[in-house]
Design goal:
21% of the residues lie in helices and 17% in strands. The protein is α+β, with helices and mostly antiparallel strands. Strand 3 and strand 4 form a beta hairpin. The N and C termini lie far apart (45 Å). A 3-stranded antiparallel beta sheet has the order 1-2-5, with no helix packed on it. A two-stranded antiparallel sheet has the order 3-4. The longest helix has 9 residues. It has a single domain, classed as Alpha-Beta Plaits (2-Layer Sandwich). The chain has 3 helices and 5 strands; from the N terminus they run E-E-H-E-E-H-E-H. The protein binds iron/sulfur cluster (2 copies).
Length: 92
C-alpha cells in the first residue's frame, strides 16, 4: 500500500473556489459573508476557512474582496455564466 500523500482541500460554491492552503484563519471573510456560508475548521495544525453552507452562496464576492491571501477565486461555472447572462452580463 502506498503511503498517504498530502490531501489538497479545494472546495467550491456555484460562484467561488476556495483553496484554504494559504488561509491563516483571520476570519475577515467570515465576517464579510452575508449568508453565513463560511466557517473555520478547528484542526490544531492548520486552522483554515471551510464552506459550511455552500448552497447559500449568492456570489456577492465579499470574501474575495476582503481576503489578503488569495484563498478565493471565481468559479466560472456554467451556472455562474448563465446567471450573469440572465442579467445581461457577458462573462469573459
Ligand atoms: S461570494 Fe458572498 S455569499 Fe458567497 S461565500 Fe463569498 S461572501 Fe459569502
Ligand atoms: S479572509 Fe482569507 S485568510 Fe482570512 S480566514 Fe478568510 S480565507 Fe482565510
Amino acid at each position: 500500500m502506498k503511503a498517504q500523500t498530502e490531501k489538497r482541500q479545494v472546495v467550491k460554491t456555484a460562484f467561488v473556489w476556495v483553496n484554504p492552503r494559504n488561509c491563516n484563519a483571520c476570519e475577515r471573510c467570515i465576517d464579510a459573508c452575508p449568508k453565513q456560508v463560511l466557517g473555520v475548521d478547528g484542526s490544531f495544525w492548520h486552522k483554515h476557512v471551510v464552506l459550511e453552507n455552500p448552497d447559500a452562496c449568492t456570489g456577492c464576492r465579499n470574501c474575495m474582496q476582503v481576503c489578503r491571501r488569495k484563498v478565493f477565486s471565481e468559479n466560472a461555472s456554467d451556472l455562474f455564466k448563465s446567471i450573469l447572462a440572465e442579467q445581461g452580463i457577458e462573462y469573459s
